[in-house]
Design a protein that fits this description.
The structure holds two protein chains of two kinds. Chain A is of the alpha/beta class. Chain A has two domains: 222 residues, Quinone Oxidoreductase, Chain A, domain 1 (Alpha-Beta Complex); 162 residues, Rossmann fold (3-Layer(aba) Sandwich), CATH 3.40.50. Chain A contains 13 helices and 18 strands. In chain A, the strands form four sheets. In chain A, strands 3, 5, 6, 9, 10, 17 and 18 form a seven-stranded mixed beta sheet that branches. In chain A, helix 11 links the parallel strand 15 and strand 16. The longest helix of chain A has 13 residues. The radius of gyration of chain A is 20 Å and the shape is globular. Chain B has two domains: 129 residues; 174 residues, START domain (Alpha-D-Glucose-1,6-Bisphosphate, Chain A, domain 4, 2-Layer Sandwich). Chain B is an alpha+beta fold. In chain B, strand 6 and strand 7 form a beta hairpin. A seven-stranded antiparallel beta sheet of chain B has the order 1-7-6-5-4-3-2. Chain B is rod-shaped, with a radius of gyration of 32 Å. The chains are: A alpha/beta, B alpha+beta. Chains A and B meet through helix 3 of A and helix 8 of B.
Chain lengths: 389, 327
Amino acid sequence: MRATCWLGKKHVEVRNVPDPGIVNPRDAVVRITSTAICGSDLHLYNGFVPTMQRGDVLGHEFMGEVVEVGPEVHDLKPGDRVVVPFPIACGHCNMCEKELFSLCENSNPNAWMAAKLWGFSPCGIFGYSHMLGGYPGGQAEFARVPFADVGPLKVPESLSDEQALFLSDILPTGYMAAEQCGIEPGDIVAVWGCGPVGQFAIVSAYLLGAERVIAIDRVPYRLQVARERAGAETLNYEEVNVYEALQEMTGGRGPDACIDAVGMEAHAPGLYGAYDRAKQAAMMETDRPIVLREAIMCCRTGGTVSVAGVYGGFIDKFPIGAFMNKALTLKTGQTHVHRYMRPLLDRIERGEIDPTFIVTHRRPLDAAPEMYDTFMHKQDECLKVVLKP
Amino acid sequence: MARHIEYGEYGQPRGARAPAEQLATGLGWFSIGLGLAEMAAPGTMARLIGVRERGATRRVLQAYGAREIATGLAILQSEPGAQWLWARVGGDVMDIATLMPTLNDAGSDRTRVLTAIGSVAGVTALDAFCAMQLSQSRGRDAARRGSRTNAVHVRKAFTINRQPDVVYSFWRKLENLPRFMRHLESVDVIDDRRSHWKATAPAGLRVEWDAEIVEERPNERLSWRSLEGATVPNRGTVSFRPAPGARGTELRVDLEYSVPGGRFTALLGKLFGEEPEQQVADDLRRLKQLLEAGEIARSAGSTSHRQPAQPAPDLLREQVKSEGVRR
């Protein structure tokens, strides 16, 4: 089959690789009809995630048709149209029983690697490094889906691929980021990052009752989408001082909740950004925590900082003083996608959410290398790429 | 850890001392003697070695004397280490380096200085020889001791989301062990207490042994040990305790085994990725996967599963039925 393979930093190719098959009794094989490039794939592309190996198949946002199921998969059959959550979860461990699916204790065969870095391992993830399982990803024609009796959600024929595809990751991720804010009536939520997750976080914050949502980015077309499609007020951090602007906009209180939808590769203007870039390049920190620091500084006393952006290692100058003395709450985690897929599908069916507004590029799978580059450089007003194998 | 007899260089029990150690003792006393002379009579010593007697010379000689005494005492400790002999070699080099410039000093007696340099060079050779001998015999000693006593001891705890009786029954059916213990090929039950084990060892070797259960408290605790004649003598205990708040079972494993070659084999194993702690952790993680998820997680690139323990799902289903595993 054709598959998008990681070959090194800023180097992906669509190559022929062996077709996947059933390995375990609870597996299914899915023929992929739509798949997308995620912002977190760019962390792999840019070489910031350790334990990637040459030839690894990328992609963790995908949907398609079931073509084969293992003997223990009883509620799926060949021909079913499904969307697949990016975290792989067994459904039976203590974490899965608490619906903390991204913390599944049984789905990462290389758990020891993650445990070395983080103390314990989260779940396995499709196409996201060997320390998170070494599972081939879904930017391909087919994918093997473990624990298929737990993860994949059947998609009704009434919904298009583009309406359902983002249930695999970014819609639940934006939603969980907003849910973690514990939004109360009158709350103002600030969202750093107007990529796809940021856009869905804005939409979700409104759905969950936010009074106002303020979005922060520097890319004009992304700010425009946040304003016009997601309904946020916007700040361009290259034009204004974010802290002062937020003070002004919130009557001096600060946002009640702050969402970091950026993660480890944040940018900042001038010397401040250069500082973390230099430290990261010299391997004195693995992640650039620019947004995290700013969110903690800007958040009102007693507020919540919700982190949806991906971090991997160690950071420098975490403002623990502000965090502690302002009695902030920090909430984070890989998304427990399984928990949100069904309710969000219902919302899509009822027309409460239209996730298709973020799609800017629709291309055949073979265009993946070019699209990684376009997405990375934010060229051609690229916000979300959907690939058709 | 078992008690052991310590063996000296040629296999004699300690007390019959090896030549290198006798030499070391000699050099230790020599060091102290020379040091005392340098400290007490720096003037006489200076004249003896032919250098001009000045305030600075006296102070240098006294300082060097202190160094000699310290090194000598260190060597004479009950178990002289090669490092102190190497320290002597370093001191000798220092002596020579200090003597060389005095050769052209106006007040020096060239012949005496040359003699002194020659003597120090001779002692240097002796020190170096002794240090090398000691280093080698220490290595051999450790290897010998290792093969007798350096047991590998591993403890590991995992929580499994199944009731203790389920986890216990699964483990007690010893034939199940190779399904999650990667290095086990098979366990054949001989009778109620005894069983025959086959396992793979590093470098493609195979080992077999008989084991017996020495303690059995259903749903709580199980202990076993290998019987006489095992290549890799081992013992183990596994305990099953209900985890608080209906979280299943806290499984604690305590294993000990002696590998031929002792610490060195263990170290070599580590270099090749055979870290005992890691192995046991991986094995228990697979057990957890089997009992909770019904299968062992595998991916195309799972590094810990180059030789995966086979999930054998049919066997598990049978187990699940007979033991009433909640699914």
